[in-house]
Design goal:
BirA Bifunctional Protein, domain 2, five-stranded mixed beta barrel, 2 domains, five-stranded mixed β-sheet, Rossmann fold, single chain, RNA-binding, alpha+beta
Length: about 400
RNA sequence: CGGGGCAUGGUGUAACGGCUAACAUGCUCGCUUUGGGAGCGAGUGAUUCCCGGUUCGAAUCCGGGUGCCCCGACCA
């Protein structure tokens, strides 16, 4: 893409109202626009990053977890929440139809997916069922905070599983841990992200969260460094030791972290609320066992950024970067060759081509801010060697690479 | 929702109750310049968040709103 065609601009200083590192960088680089507290527009490069994260999630949902993607509405009937007892949640955005019927904006989709599945589930032969969606959620938070980490409208992946018995649920739940681990590794924060025992609510001992260690986080976890599992601070008082390997509580390390994912055994809480049942092999009617599995997609983008940045700007992992290469010509004489390189590389990978007539310093500063993995500089100097200077964003060393060898980086 | 802070061109900041609200940056035009946010010149851009009050006079003081940020509470 030609940088001159990008309608967004970078700015030197973030608005002073943003203190969160993720919001400062995303706004300075023109990835997002703030509409109000906790509500952001996604601009071209921000959207590209988000779409890449979505695709990584989709792949794991489809291939590892064999789930089917659907898309449910944001407008929900309040009646459904009366059935599950969640109609008094204070984070619900409430609204009405013109006819007066009470509605809420969806903050989660159990109240929609269970009646939906009820229309398609009758026999044990129909089970298990796995459905997921990637969709905006609305939560009327008393306090939005930390940039994109806690918004009032935000993109979320939510998966719901339906099982005939506890064993079948259990094995799927374990598989979901694996899928989640794959996702966080692929987006580049595998080393900082830990599965964490958390409160299971009234009907399960535990749920599990995926917590990314960063000072920007709003949770505290107690990390067991021997087995790489953590315990959420909210349940630490009930524990004597690591539930995974038995290491003593006093040897766990307390860290600040952000919850990027959560998986939750629901037992029959929601299926019972809507009489979601099936007929088993013996002809008996039984309740369906459920699980739900969430990932905050926008929050994940923010969490990646909190982990991957330096004083100059963002450092995107290649898997989610808006572009792979940032091509920068210096001087009139380099432009012709840069055009040619852009045409060749651009056929195979995403290249942001800085074709703007601005000073070198500005190009470099913007390049560091935007944080594309590979910076390619073409100048009279490099052309004398028939080369291009290649620099990885996360490294300080540059090296000259012959133009014909550039293909090996694709 | 409890506590604290802030609000001035697009952005970042300045201005004793008193002159035409200043500076930087941005943007426009011209010249110049191309290996780290370049230089010179000329322009442009503001209902000082809103409503009310005090005063001869309010960006500045007072009252009430609203918005934003931070701490806490909350977070199936």
């Amino acid at each position: 893409m030609y940088q001159s065609k990008l309608f967004t601009k970078t700015v030197k200083e973030a608005p002073k109202e943003e203190e969160a590192r993720n919001a400062q960088l995303l706004i300075r680089a023109g990835f997002i626009n703030k509409e109000m507290a906790g509500v952001y527009s996604l601009l071209p490069m921000g959207l590209k990053v988000l779409k890449k994260i979505e695709e990584i999630i989709r792949y794991e949902m489809n291939s590892t977890l064999k789930a089917s993607e659907i898309y449910m509405p944001a407008l929900h009937a309040l009646e459904n929440y009366e059935k599950t007892g969640r109609d008094d949640l204070d984070i619900l955005f409430r609204t009405k139809l013109a006819t007066g019927r009470d509605l809420v904006l969806g903050q989660s989709h159990e109240e929609v997916v269970v009646p939906l599945v009820k229309n398609h589930l009758f026999s044990y032969r129909d089970l298990p069922i796995y459905v997921y969606q990637i969709q905006n959620k609305f939560r009327n938070e008393l306090r939005a905070k930390s940039g994109v980490l806690r918004g009032r409208e935000f993109l979320m992946k939510d998966l719901y599983s339906f099982h005939a018995d506890e064993e079948d649920f259990k094995s799927y739940y374990e598989l979901s841990k694996k899928a989640y681990k794959n996702i966080f590794e692929k987006v580049g924060i595998g080393e900082e992200t830990f599965i964490t025992f958390a409160d299971g609510g009234t009907f399960s001992k535990y749920s599990h969260e995926f917590q990314t260690v960063t000072d920007a986080g709003e949770d505290f976890i107690h990390l067991c460094e021997s087995c790489g599992v953590a315990i959420n601070d909210e349940i630490i008082d009930e524990q004597d030791s690591c539930p995974e390997c038995g290491k003593k509580k006093k040897d766990l390390v307390k860290k600040k972290a952000i919850e990027v994912g959560n998986i939750f055994p629901l037992k029959t809480k929601f299926s019972d609320a809507f009489d979601l049942t099936f007929t088993d092999e013996k002809g008996d009617e039984k309740s369906v066992i459920m699980g739900c599995y969430g990932i905050g997609v926008g929050r994940l983008m923010g969490a990646i950024l909190e982990v991957k940045n330096d004083e100059k700007g963002m450092i995107w992992p290649e898997s989610v970067a808006p572009f792979k290469f940032h091509l920068i010509p210096i001087g009139k004489k380099a432009e012709k060759e840069a055009d040619k390189i852009y045409r060749n590389l651009g056929k195979e990978v995403e290249v942001l081509y800085d074709d703007r007539q601005v000073s070198v310093g500005e190009k470099f500063a913007d390049s560091d801010l935007i944080g594309i993995p590979y910076r390619l500089v073409v100048s009279e100097k490099t052309l004398a060697e028939n080369s291009v200077e290649v620099k990885k964003r996360e490294e300080t060393v540059e090296k000259l690479v012959k133009i014909e060898k550039l293909q090996s980086y694709v």
